[in-house]
Amino acid sequence: MQPRQLTTPQEAVARIRDGAIVSFNGIGMIGLAEQFFLAAEARFLSEGHPRNLTLYSACGLGGSGENAYITRLAHPGMVSRAIVGYIAPYAVFAPAILSGEMEGYNLPQGIISTNYRAAAARRPGFLSKVGLHTSADPRQQGCALNDRSREKLVELREVDGEEYLFYRTVYPDVCVLRGTTADPGGNITFEKEVNVSDSLSLAMAVHNNGGLVMVQVERLSAVPADPKDVRVPGALVDCIWLSPDQWQSNRPGYDPYLSGECRAPEEMVEKMCRDNLTRDRAPGKPLTLAERVIARRAALELKDSYLINLGIGTPMLAASEARDMGILTPRHHVSIETGVMGGVPVPDAFGAVINADAIYDMAAQFDLYEGGGLDASFVGALEIDRKGNVNVSAKGQLLMGVGGFNHVTQGAKKIVVCSKFRQGSGYAVENGRISVLEGKGSKFVEEVERISLNAPYFRSLGKRILYVTERAVFELEDEGLLITEVAPGLHPYFFVQAQLPFPVRVHPRVRNMPEICFKPIQKAMKP
């Protein structure tokens, strides 16, 4: 017996009206229903519909090259607005957003995730302190990415003498989900999926808005699913289609250790951590010595931090470096904002974790963060200014999006910012000798273009903020940035202060960065 909702992706996309708000679940290739993008493009090219769509997603979807499925929606007239948390995978729309040809809004990832639940309950909006005094605040950009984006998605409110942001609910018309199996009733299980993200609340939001809930699955089952395994009830599902070859993550093929169907033996986890520290970040772009130094120094901040979040990029390596240094213990609980607790993150497939303790709704993870549940958060930076403010969302012609950054910093007692000192800076080893690479573009600027982390505001809340580079460690004080550590052999003035566009103080008892941070360089120097 087949589910009544079974159809083809072509028949499903034929039901999408012009001007619809289409929402997606997942991140990268995780949760991506690739057949939707192919069918939607084919319909638009043959019929000119659907037109003027709004793309609405907490995370960015799609890979690169032949897997850059989002480009299938980039035909002129097909998309007129984007409301997203993480923009980088949607780079194909960046020129139109930057030029003002289409509307663009960058809401915090966790706000969009929470928004799905508000839409399901038909609430007009909700209050949050997340985003105060940042680019989400209407006193700054109010989430807008250009002058054309005039819709007031966020307002400043006061409750009992305290400031909050009121985020207005966006009600999606269509959602595109991905699961593993559909049973005869159209109930969806996720046994091979790496994350569940916001699948349930998004399906509820669209269903209660009278919209279309679409689900791509790998297979059908002839027997009813265990009700405890069902992530999306068939009562909420309108369309189901099959895609037997869907990717599980950014990596091709299927890995049962990523979905939690099997638990990897310890020796495999150890090998993965070693591979993480020697792998290429991208084809032909190996990890640098500077990145490993930064990740190692950041990992030392685990000593009094047990519930932590690791951001994308260099911060993700902190867990592997901590294992390599023998300081990662059972007391440490690594979390990823996509809704994963425990295990070891996979750096080249953000959101994927080996040997996770729990995989649950993304909105629940952001609830934990927003309420102050993190001991520490490890994040990256596009640029840092003299006040200690951090920008991760946009710089010049580069649109990245704030992603989960606002929540993971708002909810942490300690924030560890991991950044190269300059773009391309670092260390090189040749013939057993080490040299400093100066780099070209400054990561430290007089004033950031957009504020993703408002350092003075966070300091007023009692948060500790560290800035870890390969040359020095800075800590935020009331007077600004203070150099507390420098790399061994580097003079704090010539190699740090003189290279900054603004003055910084040096701690009177400035220390050398711990020698263990430079173990990768020492290994590289061996003949």
The count of strands amounts to: 37
Query: Roughly how many Å is the radius of gyration?
Result: 23 Å
**N-C termini distance:** 67 Å
Mean pLDDT: 93
Question: What attributes does this structure have?
Answer:
37 strands; seven-stranded parallel sheet; 13 helices; 527 residues
Short description:
The chain has about 525 residues and is an alpha/beta fold.
Could you describe the 3D structure shown?
This protein has 13 helices and 37 strands. It has 527 residues and is an alpha/beta fold. The protein has a 10-stranded mixed beta sheet with strand order 22-19-18-17-23-28-34-35-36-37. Strands 4-3-2-1-8-11-14 form a 7-stranded parallel beta sheet. A 4-stranded mixed beta sheet has the order 12-9-10-13. β34 and β35 (472-477) form a beta hairpin. α7 (266-276) crosses α9 and α8 crosses α9 (318-325).
Describe the protein's topology.
Blueprint: H1 9-13, E1 21-24, H2 34-47, E2 53-57, E3 79-84, H3 94-98, E4 103-106, H4 109-120, E5 125-128, E6 154-159, E7 162-168, E8 174-178, E9 181-182, E10 188-189, H5 199-208, E11 212-217, E12 219-220, E13 230-232, E14 239-242, H6 256-259, H7 266-276, E15 280-282, E16 285-286, H8 289-299, E17 307-310, H9 318-325, E18 333-336, E19 340-341, E20 344-345, E21 353-354, E22 358-359, H10 362-370, E23 374-379, E24 383-385, E25 390-391, E26 394-395, E27 398-399, H11 405-410, E28 412-418, E29 422-423, E30 426-430, E31 433-437, E32 441-442, E33 444-445, H12 455-460, E34 464-468, E35 472-477, E36 480-486, E37 505-512, H13 519-525
Parallel strand pairs: 1-2, 1-8, 2-3, 3-4, 8-11, 9-12, 11-14, 17-18, 17-23, 23-28, 24-33, 28-34, 36-37
Antiparallel strand pairs: 5-7, 6-7, 9-10, 10-13, 15-16, 18-19, 19-22, 20-21, 24-25, 26-27, 29-32, 30-31, 34-35, 35-36
Helix pairs in contact: 4-5, 4-10, 7-9, 8-9
